[in-house]
Amino acid sequence: MHIEATSLLINLAFGVICALIANSRGRSAPAWFLLGALLTCLALILVLVLPDLKAEELRHHRLSRENRRLREMIRSDRQMADSRYEESNRRLSVHDQALGVDTSPRLPDSAPDNQLPDVPAAPDVLAEYEKAEWYFVRDEERIGPMPFSELRDRWRGGEIGATTFVWAAFMSDWEYLGDVQGLEGALRA
User: What are the residues whose beta carbons fall under 8 Å from the beta carbon of 182, sequence distance 6 or more?
Assistant: First the structure.
């Protein structure tokens, strides 16, 4: 009888120890109490070997917060780069007009004319652009549908730029605005 009581007390002690450790590591205290009482040393080893769920959750939360901060920095940097790019293009265009020259970059003479940057869209392409409903992505949010005229207004207002993802039904996938052939030229028109 005395041995059984001692054995029961040892099992209960292991149950309490396992429950306390499990609770501090983000695990279920009642479940680990039962495991500790039934499996004694084995349960204690298991609860110590298993990962600390509270530490994992804290690390996950910290990484999530850091990722959110980095995404915000990238978004901010991208917007700043877009605005600087648009401002420098605007200034160069004003200077070109004032001097009566064209300093826009050109591809080598061997390149087809349709690959020149900022070439105005052909009339049929321009008509397709103007009749399409457009979407763009800002702050990881899809904006649209909108008519081409609204897309042009947003482009002229600096809300979107060459590195903004855009899409219309005739496109197979989202693309940077600057990569859609003739789109920047059509927006300037």
Answer: 119, 120, 121, 122, 125, 126, 129
Q: CA–CA separation, 115 vs 117, rounded Å?
A: 6
Question: pLDDT tens, 13-55?
Answer: 999 999 999 999 999 999 999 999 999 899 989 999 999 988 8
Whether omega for the bond prior to residue 108 falls within 30 degrees of 0, making it cis, is no
Percent of the chain with pLDDT over 90: 42
The residue ranges of every structural domain in the chain are 2-50, 114-188
Q: Is the pLDDT of residue 144 over 80?
A: yes
Give the whole-angstrom CA distance, residue 43 versus residue 30: 13
CB 44 within 8 A of CB 18: yes
Query: What does DSSP say about strands 141-146 and 134-138: parallel, antiparallel, or unpaired?
Result: antiparallel
DSSP codes of every residue in 176-189: EGGGSTTHHHHHH-
Asked whether the predicted pLDDT for residue 110 surpasses 50, the reply is no
> For residue 139, is it left (φ>0), alpha (ψ between -120 and 50) or beta?
left
Q: Quick one: CATH architecture of 114-188?
A: 2-Layer Sandwich (3.30)
Say what the pTM is. 0.39
**SS3 of residue 117 by DSSP:** coil
- Residue 75's pLDDT is what? 82
d(CA 170, CA 34): 63
